[in-house]
Amino acid sequence: MRMQGRSHRHRITAALLAALMAFAFVPIQAGGVVITPDISGTVTAEGGAPIPGATALLYKWVADGGSGSWVKIASASTDGAGDYGFSSLETRLYRVGFQAPGYYTAYYDGAETLAAAKTISYTAGTEVEGIDGVLYSMEPSISGTVIEDSIEAPMPLEEIKAKVFKRNGSGGYDYYTYAWTDANGDYSVNGLPAGTYRIWFYDYGDKYINEYWNDVPELSLATDLVFDGTNEVTDVDAALLAKPAPVSGTVRDEDTGDPLEGVKVVLEPKSATGSISGDAVACSGQAYTDSYGRYRIYGLSNGSYSVEFLDEDYSDGAYRGEFYDDKPTFATADPVTYAGVPLTSVDASLTPLAAAITGQVTSESEISPEPLEGIKAKVFKSNGSGGWDYLTYGWTDADGVFTIYGLDAGTYRIWFYDYDGNYVKEYFDDVSSLGEATDIVYDGLNTVTGIDAELAAAPRVAGKTRYSTATEIAKKGFPGWDGIDTVIVSSGDDRAAADPLAASGLCWLYDAPLLLVSAKSTPDEVLVAIRDIVGVNGPVKIRVVGGPVSVPNARVTAIKSYVESYFGKTGLVSWTRVTDTGGRYYLSRKIAEEMKTNAAAQGKTLPGSALIANGEDYTKFFDALAMSPVAAQNGTPVLLVATKSVPDDTEKALAMLKAAGVTETVIGG
Predict the structure, then answer these.
(1) Which tens digit of pLDDT belongs to each residue from 268-321?
(2) CA–CA distance from 245 to each of 269, 338, 340, 444, 613 (Å)?
(3) Global confidence as pTM
(4) Helical H segments across 495-606, by residue range
(5) What would the pLDDT profile of 342-387 be if each residue is shown by its tens digit?
(6) What is the mean pLDDT of the chain?
(7) How are beta strands 410-417 and 440-442 bridged, if at all?
(8) Least confident of 244-258, 444-458, 566-580
(9) Which of 249, 346, 254, 321 is nearest to 292 (CA)?
């Protein structure tokens, strides 16, 4: 997409790379509002992993004559990074406890009881950080495995919720706690008190029929599980029946009949005559085949569809893609018509492709070259007129080996490209341009081997810390600091990936570099960088991305004080914060709104798409981080969703963008 306004395309992407230096943090939330915490900390498991959804309990000392007691006055839930905070506290003595399902209750600092907890002497107006808790997992009480109810393919089911109900004193059952199944279908409910329980197996993906143990549809019919408080109740298993899918089938190898795993199946609206369906309610769907070659596609409206089968994984050989029913193109595909009755045998048999060109890509080293995984081998074919047309590609595997399948006889050239930017791209054989590349002649029968490459490491910009690295990258993006009137400042702490991720759109909007600070200090490199930016350009505006937890006011006032003291002049640095309230979903919404509102004034045009990424689990922010250079380059807003829901703020942002002409969403992860 063409950029509008000042031409700083190269600057924006370079500046955004600084955001990748920071890892995960989400602003502390209480009741959906970001607060400035007076007392804050992080709750982790014994191995150091954060515990989202844990509860921090705040107690105050209440004197009663010559004695007193600790009284609980507040609680706060931890966010995806395990962080919590309490605000608006008065000068007083406090203690903090920590709880989470499946873990033993603990208290600060490492105490097992409230009586033994360490007291926090708090003075109003100050910030006490590092009141952390470590929770230890309870012993298993009830455990089992959940699989698919299938004689042919009893696969384990991941992310099935085992919801536990405990018998009350009136003979009824109250919801008590839960556990999730893992990749092997296993779950374990830990730390239950002795009692009688019943379990409901629930699929939030809505692809399997929920049931209670043991294989009944209602709580009143469920079988009791008696836990004596000591001995684990095992083998509380379930086999869930798949809900009928509108379209399903099996994909096999045409030669051997073996099921093919990982084949992508795509449905697109299609009329019987081959044109795109005019049915406004018809929608697309897609799925991947499982280890039994099966696929199911849900959520279809009534209509006619083409079905395409694509092999996107060449690691175990490649197969020629096709449309149903054994047709080569969309135009010739036989449409399948869904009218409320499931279509259960929309099958395909894919033809294996012959290996045409293969080789290995390694790092350039005279001593110990290492195989390079994830290098793209892009194939160009001679067009007979002296030119070269891009045709297809392959990826290197863990051994650095790539294979190109299914080529016709002809002359080819190959470009080795590292999308991560760690290695210098080159054409075969060790040249920098397509015109200089060596021809590879394939006769249509015999595999061409030995098409190898050794890639040199790319020059890197680096500093001693993430903060200095971010500054060095910004310098590269803005040579001489010229043409800057706005600087984006966000957090570079380990717990702060959501904020600089959201900042990418503002880098595009204002042609601005991104600099990182710590919640506890303002790095010298940042002070010097903004001093020099002011020296070149005059007064500068700082746009702070993140709440006062991740970027406290003191960090920005330190920048302002230093710069204006250095030049002996006031009014050189002004700053505003995108928002003081709301969580990460609200922050991404506000940035999208700012991009929409101010784009025209900045000479920019908002693109017609938005990027969607997981914002709930800090370990999954890498999907979103991979999108951030796109957001900075093209001005594509980045919005965040939860694993199992779309937050209200994100829905509002999508509605706002749709009204502004943004009609396409790209989902990462």
Answers:
(1) 988 655 444 444 334 478 899 988 999 999 888 898 999 999 987 655 568 988
(2) 17, 11, 10, 41, 26
(3) 0.51
(4) 498-502, 504-510, 524-537, 553-567, 584-598
(5) 999 999 999 998 899 999 999 998 788 899 999 999 999 999 888 9
(6) 84
(7) antiparallel
(8) 566-580
(9) 249
Q: Helices 648-659 & 584-598, crossing angle to 10 degrees? A: 10
Joined tokens for residue 621: 């922010």
CB neighbours of 446 closer than 8 A, spacing ≥ 6? none
Nearest CA to 16 out of 457, 477, 466 is that of: 477
173, β-bridge pairs: 167
Distance CA 330, CA 34 (A): 50
Mean pLDDT over residues 654-658, rounded?
A: 84
3-class DSSP string for 19-32: HHHCCCCCCCEECC
Would you state the pLDDT for residue 532? 94
Q: What percent of the chain has pLDDT over 90?
A: 46
484 by Cβ neighbours in 10 Å (0-12 / 13-18 / 19+) ranks as: buried
Tokens of 163: 């919801």
DSSP string, 503-517: THHHHHHHT--EEEE
Return the closest-CA partner of residue 52 out of 26, 22, 86, 23. 26
Distance CA 532, CA 566 (A): 11
Q: Are 580 and 550 in contact (CB under 8 A)?
A: no
Largest CA distance in the chain: 99
The position carrying tokens 């191995």 is 47
Backbone angles phi, psi at 211, to 5 degrees: -155, 160
Q: Which residues of 167-187 are buried (b: 16+ CB within 10 A; e: fewer)?
A: beeeeebeebbbbebeeebbb
Exposed, middle or buried: residue 33 (CB in 10 Å: 0-12, 13-18, 19+)? middle
Please report, for residues 210, 266, 335, 416, the alpha-carbon distance to residue 248 in angstroms, rounded to integers and kept in the order given. 20, 11, 14, 38
* Cβ-contact 78, 44 below 8 angstroms: no
Q: Dump the DSSP string for 31-77.
A: TTEE---SEEEEEEETTS-B-TT-EEEEEEEEEETTEEEEEEEEEEE
Average pLDDT over residues 626-648: 72
Cβ-contact 144, 164 below 8 angstroms = no
